[in-house]
Amino acid sequence: MATPRWRQLADRLAAQIADGTYGPGDPLPYIRDLVEQGEGSKALVHQAFRALEAEGLVVSRRGKGTFVRRQRQQVRREPQRRYQWEKDRALLPEEERAKTGATEFDTGLELPELRFHSRYTTIPAPPQIARRFDVADGTLMLCRRYWTSSRDEDAPLSLIYSWLVHEVAAQNPDLLNQDNEPWPGGTMNQLLTIGIEVDHIVDEISTRSPNTEETEILALDSGVPVLILKKTSIDTNGKVAEYSEVALPGDRTQMAYTIPLKRWKKN
Amino acid sequence: MATPRWRQLADRLAAQIADGTYGPGDPLPYIRDLVEQGEGSKALVHQAFRALEAEGLVVSRRGKGTFVRRQRQQVRREPQRRYQWEKDRALLPEEERAKTGATEFDTGLELPELRFHSRYTTIPAPPQIARRFDVADGTLMLCRRYWTSSRDEDAPLSLIYSWLVHEVAAQNPDLLNQDNEPWPGGTMNQLLTIGIEVDHIVDEISTRSPNTEETEILALDSGVPVLILKKTSIDTNGKVAEYSEVALPGDRTQMAYTIPLKRWKKN
DNA sequence: GAGTGGTCTAGACCACTGT
DNA sequence: CAGTGGTCTAGACCACTCC
Fold it and tell me: For A196, which of A63, A74, A191, B144 could close a Cys bridge (C-beta 3.0–4.6 Å)?
């Protein structure tokens, strides 16, 4: 089929954004003006604008107009450094651990008006989770949901589901109480209190469109996907100690990994 | 403002998809039927359906109906293994190198009807690229664009921009000729022919909505984001030897990294 | 040909922003 | 208050699928 007129209009505007005719923060023409100029009915022009918004190119503000989206500053996450830092920190005395948290490590922000939300639930393992831990379907799990937010609108956020085998976590009853969050020293220290040392961590990264909850909590603009980080911590016995799924705002997050390579022998 | 009726309808259908009322592959009610049932005008119901499509939950087929999207099988990429494998292979004699390519490594597919597309251009470095290589703005660069495609509709794809300093690549004129693609042994072998050994690689991963070109070449369904892999190869002198940006289909790609941690000392 | 989703119009009203 | 984007309707026509 021929390209619909709303697509043609959207592509034309997208090209003008790409070539700088409309720069970041600039206003696009008003919908009503484009209708008057014969681009089509209001619904048609509006559909073109919604497409541009879904593609992350523009933002519309009711009563003001439509503007070219500014690229948001990205937070660079380096799990290789972060996980080792977290593990080292887990052994320190509590006063030391309390000084700075993982969120500050990721963002570089001081700890200002950070609010910490958490909700713990105990539920039977769904099939996918049971498979990760190599336990029977329905094994009781401790499912911890949490996120940090800040008054700063710019503050990067993450939305986390973390899973532990309930029977294991219950060895230290403090771990079952959500009011103990944020736990000084993080998950590595929590695991230490029940005699578990993490040997290595596997990060799996994918992406998808956000659901309505993620859109709301992460304050995502329309059209922004989420990065999904599935993090599996394996202990020194080869067992899965903890598994978490982290949703990260796609327009503010960059994951970075360094891969060293073996040197070729000299000839 | 109150939630618009099209959002309410979309959320209600999304909830029914989530709870299994409509399973993968199942048809949703017809738009016209929902209109008759008083859900709203056709445009309103249609807008709800487009929202569900943009969120990746359903696909619409003209003349047939609207169906719950099936989750696509994901290809797991393990750069730590792949890059070392690529480096090891670069030293092999040509007959050995020709046996299997990087695409087969990623996908596990045999090399059936793979078609290889490439386009080389020589252009002055844009600011971002110049900064990566730490060269002056406008330094001549060899920009290589390529992708592999397959008759199999299921075949996973990637769309790549790769950059080299032109003056460096020109030491082996064969590297400037796009008809030599696919080069047996890959980029590591190409670099070897001009005396460069890669010491380590930095992967940076982000995500965004696809542009129209990526949507077309990667055959992305509506609402599917792309994973962006920015890969920087650093040689044994600490210089950037090659830089590439890879667009990967978000519904078919998973990146996996393993992070070993130092053991705690025994008490 | 009957039924599906997709496009498009003309116009109404609402919610919000500025002055 | 005028002007903006967002919602919604009623109806027309088009492109495609299946019988």
Answer: A191
